[in-house]
Amino acid sequence: MKSFMNDLSLGEALSGTLGSISLVSWVLVLVPQLAENYRAKNAQSLSLAFLAVWFVGDLTNLIGAVWAQLVPTVIALAFYFCLADAVLILQCLYYNYFFGHFFHQPSSPQAEITEDPSRPLLARQNTNVGLPGSRRRSSTFQELWNTDGGKTLVADNSEINGWANRWARNIPIILCVCILGAVGWAIAWKTGLWAPVHEHHRNTDVGGPVGAEILGYVSAVCYLGARIPQIAKNYRNKSCEGLSLLFFVLSLLGNTTYGGGIIFHSTQRTYLLDNLPWLIGSLGTMGEDIVIFVQFHRYGDSNRIK
């Protein structure tokens, strides 16, 4: 422990560990949503505006990294993020337009049921055809018909339990990401692949290109605004059905650890100003991710049937 502390300060160790965890999070962030779309053969729940603005943010980040002549690993990761964004966008376009146009899904049996004239009118209107997620919300109540033709709604706790189960399934994955990131950083440090950059080794007289810094701020603005169309779409549909909760959990984890890695490295004013665009782009989106988590919970809550 003494040799560890002599070679490396606690802040440097935390900065390196958090940065490594952020790296693992961002490498895996799009995989859950890609898998969700593939299983459902549908991507209507995702806002294409959200993905497009996010892609612009990653693209400007890549151009800025190349312009500023950052280390090759940073440029390679920025390129990977753009490639992953493009794959998700193409998947959404395929399922929403090509797949839906050329491979029509069979209509649901409910749509083919002949209406019973003796059935109450309100009961006929209670179908599962409508906004995405309406089928799930209506299924949180059991409909029982009384002998006099009335209807009794009996609450079903399956949706609430489902919300808890989704978080329970995701927690082990998050722990594995954190462990993998920490172990990866430790190996990189011990083998010499990673080394801390001390403040007195930094050249503070020469800054990066102004254009690259401007692109950094453009990227931050894109990251901040990307989630707004998705939040608005969830609100209009009153549903998050088809969205992967793990997708947004990994995004929140990646942003939190990325911003934390910068802050733990140094709190000097010059250093924080140099990294301000990346701090804004990472920590600034945390509130929006929390809003989406609230939507996941609210629109899956059986006590709030719209």
Notes on the protein architecture:
The protein has 306 residues and is mostly helical. The chain has one domain (10-99, 156-298). It is built from 13 helices and 2 strands; from the N terminus they run αααααααββαααααα. It has helices at residues 2-7, 10-28, 31-40, 48-67, 72-102, 121-125, 134-138, 158-190, 210-237, 245-265, 269-274, 276-283, 286-298; strands at 141-145, 151-155. A two-stranded antiparallel sheet has the order 1-2. A hairpin with a 5-residue loop joins strand 1 and strand 2. Helix 4 runs antiparallel to helix 9 (210-237). The chain starts with a helix and ends in an 8-residue tail after the last helix.
At a glance:
The protein has 306 residues and is mainly alpha-helical. The chain has helices at residues 2-7, 10-28, 31-40, 48-67, 72-102, 121-125, 134-138, 158-190, 210-237, 245-265, 269-274, 276-283, 286-298; strands at residues 141-145, 151-155. The protein has a two-stranded antiparallel ribbon with strand order 1-2.
